[in-house]
Amino acid sequence: MATAKLNASVISEKVSKIRWVPEQYGAPQSFVTGNWDFASNNVRIWTYVQNELSDDEVEYTPKSTAKVNIAGDVTGIQFVNLDNFLVSSSSGKVNLLNINRDLAANNLVQKHAFEGLHTFPGNSVAPCTDISVCGNSVATVGEDGRLNIVNLSGMTVTKSFDEADHCSILCVNFINHKEILTGNRMGIIKIFDSLSDQKQPVTTLFTSCENDKNSNAVSAITHHPTQTHIVLSGCEEGSITVWDLRQPEYPASYLSAHDSSITEIAFHPTEPVKVYTSSEGGELFQWLSSSNQFTVDGIVHQPNTSETINPWLSGERTKNSISWTPLISGIHKSINSFSVCGSKMVCSSDNEAIYFIDNCI
Amino acid sequence: MDKEIAPTYYIPADGLCNKAGITAKWIHEDKLSVSAYKHITSSFKDGPTEFANTEAINIHHLQTNFIFTNPILRSLIAESNSVFLNVQQAAKQPNTKPDYIKFSRTYRSIVRACLKSIQDEMSSSVDVDKTEYANYTTIFYSVECIWHLCEILMIDPAPMNAVVPHLLDWIRFHFSSYEIRATDLLFADRDDFHESSGDFLKTVKGMIAQGQVEVARTLLRLHSKGDNSCFQVAGEILRLMPLFSVTGGLPLQKFKSKWQYWVTDTESKLATGCLSAEPELEEIIKLVVGNQEAWINLAKESRCWYEFLPGYLFYTEPGCKYFELGTYAVVWLRRWETAKGFRDSRTMTHLDRCVLKVMENDMYQVIHDIQLMCDNKWFVTHLTDLLCHCGQLQILGDQQKDVTAALRESLLFDFGASLMARDSLWLFGIDYLEHSSVEGVGAIELLLPKIPVASEKQAMKIIAVAKRKGLLEVEQEICRVQAVRSVVNNRLGNALEWAIRSHDSIFVTSIADKFLENYAKTSQIMCPDVIGNIGPKMFISPRLVFLVKYFDFHQYYRCGEFAQASELLINLLDSKITPEYFWPSLLADAIPLLEAKDQHFSSKETYVVLHHLEHQLIPLIEKKKQMVASGKDTSLNLMNDCRIEHVDEIVKLLRLSCARNLARALIHENTIV
């Protein structure tokens, strides 16, 4: 097991979202970032340049090759395919940007801007809070409690749930062509059916909370890449709630993770035994679930090969078979976002630095 | 003290200001508000001045230059903030003495990295303001130089306080040209030597002047005339030179006598003229024995006064302690000025003066001087904080009182406040305020809610920070503001959630009222998803409890679970938390249940309904009618429920249905089956 090397570089921007640019073959070479809280915010594309001067300690420095200005804070970045990605912002707009791989610099172009997706009853602009892509469709949610489904081939809004929520929606996850999950500031997750005509949620899930009297927003939500019925939600209080959408009445499991709001939660795209969470308190954890063995009353049981329960779903046993390791901790400021691809991980923090882990195990 | 020349700034074309004069007031630390002003004294005639109503009055805001808007320098803030927090954290650990040298070095490496980025930027891009960057280089070069000196003298004191070896390191670092040249020579091909140019011996001399005797000797041996007797003699002299070493060497007195013996020996050798064939070499040996004339000659070549001071001390006062350094420095400075032909200290730069003051350990003056650097007090804040933590700083104020802690706090406060005033640097600013005085925490409480919030995400971010610092009031205030915004945007459900977060019971009540009033008007419950999910949080306000319970009643009724609905309705009637305006609606809700085919209310329960009708609604209607009669109120409209035209109608219908249900219930209850 090689130790992970951590490269930190200060870029003088508070990055709210960071994503690897996917490659058809091989490891990712570049990533995109979007920042927040500046008079003029932007989306940048970066590449890591290996520093030749340092010999044994492999050092990388990020170099920005292009930027596009965005009105308002960037709230979400999602790739649609290899070259195109969507950026949502607090100005209520969603922009479609394109990366030109033939150019070395200035390789970012805005292709389309969706406006007026989110508005308050008085017709003033409402911030768009999150986006989630599924195939050729994208779900957008905003502070106006609206859920839009936009088709990217026609660049049109195909469906709009006007009153999806009377509270602001903070996060969205487009699981498959049918189901969309939204999480709001009250700790309620709603499942909408994108195919039916009904404007009401199909199911409503209530996240657990350590203290019922505290408010506990759903701050991040994700699903298992292959077993899409497994959904993890991260909360304001820092806990993770696990759901099995086949039995949505009760949470399948509940884990205390961080002691501050979870900013992002994600499965590793190709090795789903790994889950990553980042928190407002400046922590980045890796969760490892071993499905090979689990213990009951201290005795190790070899599971039946036919029994393939995902450890995230196995209730009480979960706590024994899921272990966590902190990848980053104690950096005083919030880790806002991370992106993992293969063995490479980038993450961004409010201390205006981006961290690169080349070899995250 | 020298008179400082204050920079002058002219108010741009403003006729009135030019004619009448100006007045100014500080808005905060680095913002000044200037406007036209005519000073009036008692001798003036009472009345408007001649300038009144002649021209428009402009108010100008002057702001000091804020260098950290530059992205390269901004990284300095971001990185140093993290080190600063680590220092505070380490200082709080009990029983362990933190490694302050490590922190100091980290700070310096940040500055050096920043300097390097500035250099790279200047050399790589064409469209940059070169003079601006040159300015930054000057500023941060000085910062690094002074910090380094403070580090070796105060944070990392040498054993026995012998400062010379450290000073030599410091000077080698900041005047590295000789050393670079020496390294080149050592690694160069012997054929490439150009000794004749004088460059070679100059480098040797430079090495000697920086106390690098070993390197100088090696260089001498490389010289093509190395076998020459002069070179042999010089090499021998240098070889025999006793070296002062703090650890494991001779006691100072013993060393001094040994040194003196060697000096006398060498001087006698020089007197024989054995080196006169090589005047350059002779000069070098004269330096080594501390010949005043030779050092004065060397001083003439130096670029600034302290360049050869450590070298001079190395050969004359190797055991010099920090408290003696000031005296030696002043002596050397006078000598240097005479050598250079300067009359007084006016030619000294700001950096030169600071270096002298550090050597004299006049920290009061040092702190004063470095505050004047154009780095928006980044340097003075961080250095003072670090020195305070290692207990190396003592500043005496009026009446010889120790004001060090107060000074640190006030510097942290000012620096934090100036960061808070800037775009997007608030996140760093609060850390400094937090670690300053009690006022700092107060300032956070005042400043945090004032950060302009454009989206809820940003609000949540500020709340998260406030929560971490335990600032409950800030959190509540931001929540209140967000709630009001949501009300303006007509998003009552969202507003209710924010209000609950704000823990402001009165505010929650007022929003819950909006829901109930709307229900009375339209029979529609707004935002059912929000109300249905409030859960135990409803206990913040009795009105909210009523709203949630009423919503539950409504749900039971809609689902046809009349038994539960009636029970809940009776509970609500008896709960004593029903708002006045809601009595008609609540009692009207009883009518269909009383009139239902199945009996839902027992006789006792019917009495409850009747009781509340007679004791709550009727007096209310009477009061209202009196008000209308006396002209204080205009109509009874407010008392109405949308389902029934007039409130009297409700009373009539309810009495009737109560009577009917009572009859039914009494018969039912008194029948023995």
UniProtKB/TrEMBL annotation, chain A:
Gene3D superfamilies: YVTN repeat-like/Quinoprotein amine dehydrogenase. It is found in: Nucleus. InterPro entries: WD40/YVTN_repeat-like_dom_sf, WD40_repeat_dom_sf, WD40_rpt. It holds the Pfam family WD40. The keyword Nucleus applies. GO terms for cellular component: nuclear pore outer ring. Transmembrane segments: none annotated. WD repeats lie at residues 211-253. Keywords: Nucleus, Repeat, WD repeat. Its main location: nucleus. It comes from the Eukaryota. PANTHER family: NUCLEOPORIN NUP43. This is Nucleoporin Nup43.
Automatic annotation (TrEMBL), chain B:
Signal peptide: none annotated. The keyword DNA-binding does not apply. The keyword Repressor does not apply. GO terms for biological process: mRNA export from nucleus; positive regulation of DNA-templated transcription; protein import into nucleus. Keywords: Membrane, mRNA transport, Nuclear pore complex, Nucleus, Protein transport, Translocation, Transport. It comes from the Eukaryota. It is found in: Nucleus, Nuclear pore complex. InterPro entries: Nucleoporin_Nup85. GO terms for molecular function: structural constituent of nuclear pore. Functions as a component of the nuclear pore complex (NPC). Belongs to the nucleoporin Nup85 family. Component of the nuclear pore complex (NPC). This is Nuclear pore complex protein Nup85.
